[in-house]
Every structure is written in C-alpha cells, then in structure tokens.
Amino acid sequence: MRTVSANDRGTVRLARAFAAFLCALALLPAGSGAHADVASGSRLSAGPGRECATPSIDQYQQWLATGEGTTVPATGSLLVPEGDRYAAKVELLNDEWHVIVVWLGNQFEAQADLSGSSGFWLTYSATDDLYVQLRPASHWSGGDKWLTPVPSTGGKLERRFFSFAPDNWTWLPELGEPSYSFASALSEARGLVFVGKTPNTLDFRGLEVDGYQPPCL
C-alpha cells in the first residue's frame, strides 16, 4: 500500500477546494457585480420580489399627475412600459407650478418613519431644474413644505443620491415657510412631491430609499 504524505494530502485538499470554487462561480448570475452605468441610466435588474404584480418602479406603484399645473398626462398614473420594466414619464408645460406625487406607502393613508434613513437614490432625467418636497401626513396640503433641489440632467438618465441631512433641505418664500420641523416630516413621511415652475420633460426609472421598502398593494 502506498503511503500518502502530508504534501500529497495538502495537494488533494487544495484541488478539491478549487473545484468547489469553480462550481460556485458557475452558479452565479451573469453580471452579478455591483455595477451601475450612470451615463446610460442602465442598472442591474431588480430581480424577483423587487417589483409588484401591478406596474411599479422599485415597488413604488403610485406615480401621479395631480392636475396642478398643465402636464401631459394631466392626471392619473405616469407609469408606462419601458422594456421589461416601467418608467414614470410626464411633461410639464407653461411657466406655472406643477405637482407630481409619489405615495411612499402606495396609498394615500399610509406613512413611513424615515428618521433612521440617510436619504434616497433617484434614477431620472430632467430637461430643467425642479424640487422635491418631503410631505408629512399631518401637513400634507399646501406648498409650504421642506424641499431640496433636483438638478437638470440635460435630458440624460442619471442616478443621484439625495441626503436627508437637514442642512440639505430648505423652503421657498414663494411657497411659504413650513410650520413644522424637518425631523417631524421624516418621522411621518407620506410622499415625495416633485414641484417645478418651468417647462420640463421628466423620466423616472428608479427610487430607492435607504432603510425602507414599500409594500405592494
């Protein structure tokens, strides 16, 4: 009988470990690296469980034109098919205030506590600057809300991060000063509301809020 040396046993163990690594590598999905092409707006598929049975963008089902300001579409859902996913598209017309709403809990009555969230990622294109308001459940109506600028992308799809750091949020004298704190808005967030006063072509492809995932309805 041949005696197996310690070196031989080490070689066998190494070969087996390498073979197991190759098998595991073969089972990984193509393009599984953490990569996003900001220039073209493409990104990894959200994968199973990340979209709802009805049209949604990252499980957000309610992207709505409110009828405030002249828009196309004038009211209702902005969601349209885009390849194997959905996009929220709207045109803002005329020099007047326009209001576009995203309900964070997919229904008006819902709210989310975002006190522990660092902010949100938005994948979008815009031909002009606009703002996004964080509207709380207790102070939903009116323009006197905390907001942060959403820069124009020149019509190109980009993915940008918007921090919930209080210093990044302000208000506009034209719309009024909020009567509540930004911290309270975070604790009872009902929706993100995009507002703009100039003609604009908007295309939303992604919305990811740190630490929060909306329920599908």
TrEMBL record:
Descriptive protein name: Regulation of enolase protein 1, concanavalin A-like superfamily
Signal sequence range: 1-36
Alphabetical keyword list: Signal
